[in-house]
Amino acid sequence: MNINVRRWSNEIIEIAISGVPLPLLNALRRYALAKVPTYAVDEVMVVINTSHMFDEMLAHRIAMIPLRSEEALERIKGLDIDVCYKCGSDSEDKPPSDVCEKCYVHMFLEAVAEDSEYTVYSSDIKSEDEFVKPVYGNIPIVILSPGQRISLELRARVGRGIEHIKWSPATIAVTRYVADIRISEDLCNLCKKCIEVCPKNVLTVYQNRIQVKDKYECILCKQCMYACPTKAIDVSYRDNEYILVIESSGALEPETILRESIGILLNELEIISKSIDSWKR
Ligand code: SF4
Ligand code: SF4
Q1: Of 210, 151, 218, nearest to 180 (Cα)?
Q2: pLDDT exceeds 70 at position 94
Q3: Is 142 helix (H, G, I), strand (E, B) or coil?
Q4: How many CA atoms lie within 13 A of 59 on its CB side?
Q5: How far apart are CA 152 and CA 149, in angstroms?
Q6: Looking at the CA of 232, which ligand is closest?
Q7: Average pLDDT over every residue of 24-51
Q8: Ramachandran assignment for 190, one of left (phi > 0), alpha (psi -120 to 50 degrees), beta (any other)
Q9: If phi over 0 gives left and psi between -120 and 50 gives alpha, with beta otherwise, what is residue 153?
Q10: Which domains does the chain have, with CATH numbers?
């Protein structure tokens, strides 16, 4: 197995991997989207809303604001999220309060437009938990006209993307093929048409030959092949090499999303393995 980290920042991680089957990478990608838990607003109690926006729309907008969950991740590890899933303020079958304490976070949103228009941003949401709060403060929620006000109580809880996309820590989780670009020196006349049409600037001329600058940048669009008058260039994909890209909503660090996906998958495989052992007895 070979791993090459191509990009790694607070927002995105991109790794080129060889020697790992594509279905396994696809499983990790899907787990990143659907299984890694984060916080999101799940209940909104509207105390006052004299804005032009319906309560439901306001609640939906607030629910989609990513909440920072990285620092709170340790305490929610091991929580039975299926219990949290069933729990609501009107639920009769509530889990024990120590579970709720870890799971729920209270927040408030109060805003008023006095004499002039006021744009309510995610930074106006005040959380009772110093670790769980909106990732970005500049997400607009509603514009209040003079005299309008909103007063909301919010309950954020732990959930997973499989329940609703608002809990997904990843905005993008994809696998890509890696290009295998072959250029025949015998057929190439250096007309450079392939370079002109390439949307990712993958090709260049070096030492009087067409060279590939970065195979990982190629998106396999084959425009170079179609433009080549002599059929000197051929683009296909490598069998055993892939790129995995995970972009974070900001709720968790990209590497945390990847690590947690691997952990959850391993845990589920372990459960299957133990079940198989128990069948033998
Ligand atoms: S397949 Fe597309 S991206 Fe790749 S080298 Fe050819 S033109 Fe460029
Ligand atoms: S378009 Fe074809 S012939 Fe022209 S430089 Fe590219 S590979 Fe060579």
Answers
A1: 218
A2: no
A3: strand
A4: 14
A5: 10
A6: 2
A7: 95
A8: left
A9: beta
A10: 2-34+171-245 (3.30.70.20), 38-166 (2.170.120.12)
Q: Annotated binding residue at 221?
A: yes
Q: Is 233 near ligand 2, meaning CB less than 6 Å away?
A: yes
Ligand 2 centroid, distance to 83 Cα (angstroms): 61
Q: Is 198 annotated as a binding residue?
A: no
- Give the pLDDT confidence score for residue 90 in this predicted structure: 60
CA of 235 relative to ligand 1 center, distance in Å: 8
Exposed/middle/buried for residue 21 (C-beta within 10 Å: 0-12, 13-18, 19+) = exposed
Judged by DSSP in three states, 31 sits in helix
Evaluate if residue 149 carries a pLDDT over 70. Answer: yes
Beta strands in 128-169 (DSSP E): 140-144, 149-159
Q: Among all ligands shown, which has an atom nearest to the Cα of 199? A: 1
Task: Flag whether pLDDT at 271 surpasses 80.
Answer: yes
Is the distance from CB of 216 to CB of 178 less than 8 angstroms?
A: yes
- The rounded distance, in Å, linking the Cα atoms of 65 and 251 is 10
Measure 269 CA to ligand 1 centroid, in angstroms: 39
Mean pLDDT of the chain: 91
pLDDT in tens, 154-191: 999 989 999 999 999 999 999 999 999 999 999 999 99
CA angle, corner 77, sides to 138 and 30, nearest 5?
70
3-state secondary structure of 185: coil
